[in-house]
Structure formats: structure tokens, C-alpha cells
Please model this.
Amino acid sequence: MSTVLAQGNGRAQSEFPVATDAKLEQSGDTVRLTMALSRPVEVSASVLAGPDRVVIDMPSINFQVQPAAARKSAGVVGAYRFGLFTSDRARIIIDLAQPAVVVRAESRPVRGGFGELVIELRRASRAEFQTAAAAASVRDPEAIARPVPAKPPGETRQTIVIDPGHGGIDPGAVVASIAEKAVVLAFGMKLKEQLEASGRYRVLMTRDDDRFVPLAERVRIARAAGADLFISIHADSLTQAQEVRGATVYTGSERATDAEAARLATKENQADSVAGLDASEDMQDVAGILMDLAKRETRTFSAVFARNLVERLGGSVKMHKVPLRSAGFRVLSAPDVPSVLIELGYMSSPKDAELLNSPHWRAQAVDAVATAVEGYFVGARAPVGKAAENRR
Model:
């Protein structure tokens, strides 16, 4: 049986208050965001700079709001997004096109026991915004300290951590209302199922539902579990190059192999910011982390598995013209866990998007990854993750 991390508090989404009918309206220098709620909830709001945004926290909410509504802009609001953030909290992030402050954030009761969420923003000077941001606190220690099951005594199976990218309030790439977070979760769950079926692996997942997991937490899970292998799964998008398609395998490195790899790493490394976390919450500099990653043994094992993946995937699915690359991905920064990031394809490519949502293609690709995993462990025998057991 697998172990699944980032589980919820035991409540189904059907038990959460429901949010519907989102509206964004402007009147002069004021913009108001409203949502209908099935019942009133507690609400808190603050602003955060770099990039400028408003963070609204509430108890867990079942958002039944059309994704297209969140792409609307008005006045100081560039766009907004919403989703589960922790096991008992939901979050709305409003991206600001201009500096603004929160003048109202409440959930007021309305007739029939229902509620209405009201967030009101007013355009502000840069100085006023900076003052408000300095006074705010949006740190989330509970979001980055989930317990990781220890390896049971006598466990001889290799431990694999599967990391479906994005999740919750961070949708990843979105094309034609299809979110990357859903595509990679479906793939990750299928891969877990197949690896477990062999009986040779202990499989943990960083998330098994639509939930946000910070980048540093994904790395911590792998290290705390004494993982022998960490596989992060993504599906990129290139709005200006729809003809580009195919799967790519990445390893971590201080220096990117090319401009495209550097662009993707920069994009993926912004996941915490997308979810409203202050970058200062991860105090360790990325370059410093990646210097640790330079431990020869870990880099060697990562490269071995990456090459194995490219070979196996290439026999089953379309690969990018440059299928093996490296860059400074924060999620690949564990110094003692061989780690790779698989970009399954480009959601911006109509053909790739069709395949990424095809159960037949998914089964083919999962089988290729599982075969690569098996070949890796047969050849590597004792990956670096074993050292983590001895260290603990």
C-alpha cells in the first residue's frame, strides 16, 4: 500500500462551504470582488509585494466558480485565482496591476443563512502600499510542516516519491480550461498504481488531490522519507510556439543547458509566489542549494536515471528535439536524493494536449517511466537515498 502525503483533514469537499457567482466590479478608484457563499466564513486579507498581490485566507472552500471568471481584470486588479492551500484553509490571490490596499474583507450573512464574500480594494500610492505590505504577515509554517511517514523497520523496498507539480491555488499551465495540475496528478496517480503493483517499491506522493504544496516542502518530503528517487511531473506551455511539442527530462544544475531550460526553471520556481507565499520564507539561496546538489554521487545517479528515462520514453512517446536538459529547479535541490523533472509535453500544442488527456497515451507513458525506474534500480543497486537512512 502506498503512503500519500498532504492528505486533508478527513473531510470531503462536499462538506465545505460552497462559493459561486464571482463578480468583479469597478467604481472609480475602488474595485470590489464578491462571491456567493453557502454560509458565512471567517476572512482575513493582506497585501504582499514582489510581485504585488492581495492574499485572502478562509477556511476550506468548495469553489464552484468558472475559471474564466478569474481571468477578468478591472482597475487595480489584473487577475485572481483561488483554491485549497492547506488541509483546512482556502486562499484567493488577487494579482495587482497597480498598488492598492484592502479597505474591506468580510463574509457577511444574507437571507436564508447564506453568505456573501466581499473584498474591496482601493488604488493607493506606492508608499502606502509598501507600508501595508510591511505590516502584513502571510507566513504559513503549518503549510510546510506535514508529517512524513518513517520507513517501517525491516523495509527493504526502494522508496520513490512522486511529485505532481502545482495544485490547489496554483493551476500551472492552463489551456482551454484544462489545468496542468489536473493532468499531472492523473499521471502521478497512475504511475503510483503501476509501481506499487510490482511489489518492489514503497511509493509516497507529495499530493494526491487538488492541494498546494510549497516547493521546499516537496524537497523536505523526499529527504525525510529517505527517498531513493524523486520524480516531479509537469506539462509546460508555450503560448508563442504551439508547434513545439514532446516530452523532456530535466536534472538539477547550477547552470542551465540552454535558454529554454532556464526559462522553464524560472517559471517553475515561481510556484510559491503564485500561491501567495513570501519568497523570504525559503531563506536558503537557490544557488547555494544547488552547490550542495553538486555532490558527485547524487548528480551521477540523477543523470543515470534521466538518460534511462529518455531512452524508455523515446520508445513509447514523442520526445522534444532536445530531450535531456538541466537547470536550477528548486524542486530538484535535495543534495542526497537522485531527482528528475519530467515535462510530459506542451499543453500549448494541440496534439500534445490531446495526448496528455488520453488514457491510452497516459498508460503508455506510465509504463515507460515504470520500466525506466526498474532499469535504474537494477543498474544502480544502492542509490544515494540509502545514505539518508543512515544519517537519520
Remarks:
- Residues 127 and 287 are 32 Å apart (CA to CA).
